[in-house]
From TrEMBL:
GO CC annotation: cytoplasm
Chief place of localization: cytoplasm
Protein name, per record: FABP6 protein
Gene: Fabp6
Organism: Chauna torquata (Southern screamer)
Matches recorded under SUPFAM superfamilies: Lipocalins (SSF50814)
Residues annotated as domain Cytosolic fatty-acid binding proteins: 8-25
Localization of this protein: Cytoplasm
Cytoplasm found in the keyword field: yes
């Protein structure tokens, strides 16, 4: 994986399971409509382990996440929610856990391929039993 492997400007081509995914992560319906088949342009600037990842949405809205591989960073979801995450590099893929989903990105055949999958969490509440 080269020093600048991710650097580039990538235009949205297609998605799969968009509606199902955004419903599962709780994206508000106005954001769901905005994102459906919209031609997002993703611009990535990579300098070693430092990244600036910007998504340009139709209508002029942008979301930018700046992070360093292996260090905690302030991030923002596509729905505008702020959170902290440590982005990792695993086998040439950028890997990050967002609040409701797991995200990977890789360069394949000159294309940026991003996969988001929902994370299911199980909460177990325990109570101390007095004997």
């Amino acid at each position: 994986q080269g020093n600048m492997a991710f650097t580039g400007k990538y235009e949205f081509e297609s998605d799969e399971n968009y509606d199902d995914f955004v419903k599962k992560i709780g994206l508000p319906s106005d954001k769901v409509e905005l994102g459906r088949n919209c031609k997002i342009v993703t611009e990535v600037v990579q300098n070693g382990n430092d990244f600036t990842w910007t998504q340009h949405f139709p209508g002029g809205r942008t979301t930018t996440n700046t992070f360093t591989i292996g260090k905690e960073a302030d991030m923002e979801t596509m729905g505008g929610k702020k959170f902290k995450a440590t982005v990792k590099m695993e086998g040439g893929k950028i890997v990050a856990d967002f609040p409701n989903y797991h995200h990977t990105a890789e360069i394949s055949g000159g294309n940026l391929v991003e996969v988001s999958s929902q994370i299911s969490r199980l909460f177990i509440k325990t109570t101390t039993k007095n004997n």
